[in-house]
Design a protein that fits this description.
It is a single chain. The chain has 215 residues and is an all-alpha fold. It has one domain. 65% of the residues lie in helices and 0% in strands.
Amino acid sequence: MSLPKTPDPRDFDLASFGEMLWRRIALPSEEPGSFEIFREEMTRDLLPMTPYEAVIVESLIRTEWTIREHGHMRDTALRAGILDAARNLLVSARKKEHDAAAKEAFDSQYDGLDEHGKAWEEPELFDAGAAQSEGEALARRLGSADPARLDEADRVLAGLGTSRMELLVAVWNRLAATLARHDEAIRDNERRRRELLKDLEQLQRRRPIEGSLES
C-alpha cells in the first residue's frame, strides 16, 4: 500500500510554496530588504512542507515581526522622549539663568545708574539659538554609545540637577499610555504566536509520509 506523497511545489510550477503568499509592502522606517531576510531565515527554520503549513508559517513570521516592531517603536519612543527632555531642560535652564542675570542687573540700578554710578545697559536678549545648539549637543552625547561622551552628558545633567535615570522615570510616566499600548500589542501577539505554533505542530503531525507498506 502506497502512502500519500508530500506535495512538491515544483508540481505547481513554484520554487517554494512561499511564492503563493501575499507580498508585504515595506514601511519607510524599515531597512530595505530587512523583512525579506527575516522571512527567509524564519522559513528555513520552520520549513513548511505543504501549502497550508506555508500559510501558517507566514502568519507566524508576521506575528514575530509585529512583536519586533512594537518593541522597536516602544524603545524609540522612550529614547526620543529622553533626548527631547534633556534638550528642553537645558534650554529652559539657560533661559532661567539669563532672566535671573537680567533681573539682578535691573534691580541693582538707581535712577538709570548701576551700583557703581555707571549708566545701566540693557542686557542682551536671550540667545535661543545658542541654547538650542547646546541642547542638541547634550542630546547627541546622551544618545551616544561612547562611554566618554555619556560621562560628559552625565556631568551636564548633574549641573542641571538631574540624571539619566531621573529623565527616564519622568519620560516613562509621561509616555505611560503609549508604552502600555505597545506592551499590550506585544502580549497579544505572543499569545497569537503560541496558538499558531500549536496549529503548525498539528499540521506537521499529519504530514503524509512518502513510502509504501507491505500489504
